[in-house]
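Aim 2, interim progress: modelling of the adenosine monophosphate-bound target.
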Amino acid sequence: MEILKTPQKALKYSKSLNGSIGFVPTMGALHPGHLELIKKARDENDFVIVSIFVNPTQFLPGEDLDKYPRRLESDFEICKRAGVDGVFTPNPKNIYSEDEILLKAPKIKGYILEGFFRPGHFDGVLQVVNKLFNIIKPTRAYFGKKDAQQLYLIKQMIKNFFFDIEIVEIETVRGKDGLALSSRNIYLSEKNRKKALTISKSLKKAAKMSIHINDIENIKKEMIKILEVDKLQYIAFVDRDFNYIDKIIPGNTIILIAAYVGKTRLIDNIWI
Ligand code: AMP
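Predicted structure of the complex, ligand included:
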């Protein structure tokens, strides 16, 4: 497995590959959720490249950039075992320059929900994914439905910038108890993990209710009854293009939650 530490090395490496490239961008501290993306990429491509980069520009001041879990050596082991060909782990200094050209997330869909509570977050995500796509030049890139709004915006960037890359969407991987896997779950104490579980429970309840009723207010009331989080930021109902909806549309609805449990901010969603 090649460890590629600079954009120049990664560019040269990806250029040298003769075949399709599956690319999995991550921030590391790899868990079985990431592994599903890697497995799918392995199945569908001649070569697999994973990036591990805790991207500073997508963190807002006061967020957990410095605290974000970094486990490079064990991540390398996980990648090796999963049959990854190349791991790209650049240094921020090699990715960003001073006073550079900036990318802006769309005014509406980049600034609602996650973008409202983390203004500028998606500017940073799109900035770095754009760079990564240009360096790796993948045939296919793999993203999780867990970050549904990010996935939507990346698909929009593909269209708006005419990237010739296929985006592959992967179902959210959950623990046995239903909690969506996230690198940030390690911040949760046992007590807070129990509280966090009410997020997936309430989404499951919403999915069940939506089989029979399409009244969002009713569903929301039941979700709030189940939730035992410390601070609920939003429960939202949108269609697959992130337009707000006022009734459940079977086959075209995403229900999303963002909440704090203790100091840990968690997001989850369910696709109806
Ligand atoms: P991250 O390292 O958190 O930036 O995530 C890297 C990629 O893995 C993103 O496309 C995420 O949506 C995806 N991902 C993270 N957690 C999960 C999960 N539990 N199930 C499926 N995909 C996930």
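The pocket of adenosine monophosphate is lined by residues 26-27, 33-34, 36-37, 143-144, 146-147, 170, 172-173, 180-183 (CB under 6 Å). The beta strands are 2-4, 21-26, 47-52, 86-88, 140-144, 166-170, 231-238, 254-261, 264-271.
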